[in-house]
Give the backbone structure.
Amino acid sequence: MSGKGASIRGGRWNSSGIELIYAASNRALAMSEVAVHITFQMMPNQYWIIEIEIPDNIVINSCGELPSDWNSFPYNDATRKIGDSLVHENKYLALKVPSAVVQKEWNVLINPFHRDFKQVKILNTEPFQLDRRLF
């Protein structure tokens, strides 16, 4: 819950060096987002899932219109600028963005430097076994 992992190499929604927390809107999406980044040989014996809560009084901004190639791979600078701006402008705690892995599902980017970040609560952490048949 620091964003340091995302800052190491960057991702679709952040440049290298920008700390940003990627969260999925549900467990199945979280698993899918992980599965596209690893191979069977890379799969650890166990993952942990962290269930968080963003209070209802905090606005989760929507990313708005995206470029037509927002879901391309390798990632492009246009989407990275969106997440980078979330952190640099520090106006919003969170930003709702579409999943490139599962159409019509949503991820949430969380700015760990926003003043309201202390209101984000960890509700539960538990082991989460990825089914090896996915790989």
